[in-house]
């Protein structure tokens, strides 16, 4: 590395294991793989002071964002504020990539 350049990091999503949530890279922006089985739901939670991009790699998610519900299918991406209650539910086995960027 020279002149403060950052080393390139790569990850293969299918290789990640764990309880369905896995951090891809250390540091910012926080990048997470979310894998849910059909019918699984993440309880409502917030990520204050972050903007979030959710890209559905495979499957179908119903994403509850505050008072709004958005249906996302494989290939869809959504950007939203982490200041609201967020609760994804898998309509079928699903994998999503989430990037949580500090504001």
Characterise the protein shown here.
This protein has 103 residues and is mostly beta strands. It has a single domain, classed as Jelly Rolls. It has no helices and 8 strands. The protein has strands at residues 21-23, 30-36, 50-58, 60-65, 68-73, 77-81, 86-90, 94-102. Strand 4 (60-65) and strand 5 (68-73) form a beta hairpin. It is globular, with a radius of gyration of 14 Å. The protein starts with 20 loop residues before the first strand and ends with a strand. The mean pLDDT is 91.
What topology emerges from the helices and strands here?
Blueprint: E1 21-23, E2 30-36, E3 50-58, E4 60-65, E5 68-73, E6 77-81, E7 86-90, E8 94-102
Task: Using the coordinates shown, work out and report the CATH topology.
Answer: Jelly Rolls
The string of secondary-structure elements, in order, is: EEEEEEEE
Using only CA atoms, what is the Rg?
14 Å
Number of strands: 8
Distance between the termini: 27 Å
Major β-sheet strand ordering? 1-2-8-3-6
Content of β-strand: over 45%
Overall outline: globular
> Would you tell me the overall average pLDDT?
91
Tell me the domain tally: 1
Quaternary: single chain
Which structural class matches the secondary elements? mainly beta
Low-confidence stretches: none
Protein name: Cupin domain-containing protein
Domain Cupin type-2: 35-91
InterPro entries: Cupin_2, RmlC-like_jellyroll, RmlC_Cupin_sf
Organism: Halosimplex aquaticum
């Amino acid at each position: 590395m020279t002149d403060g350049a950052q080393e390139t990091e790569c990850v293969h999503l299918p290789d990640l294991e764990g309880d369905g949530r896995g951090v891809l890279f250390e540091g910012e922006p926080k990048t997470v793989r979310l894998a849910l089985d059909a019918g699984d739901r993440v309880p409502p939670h917030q990520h204050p002071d972050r903007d979030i991009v959710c890209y559905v790699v495979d499957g179908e998610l119903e994403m509850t964002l505050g008072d709004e519900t958005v249906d996302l299918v494989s290939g869809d991406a959504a950007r939203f504020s982490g200041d609201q209650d967020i609760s994804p539910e898998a309509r079928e086995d699903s994998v999503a990539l989430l990037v949580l960027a500090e504001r």
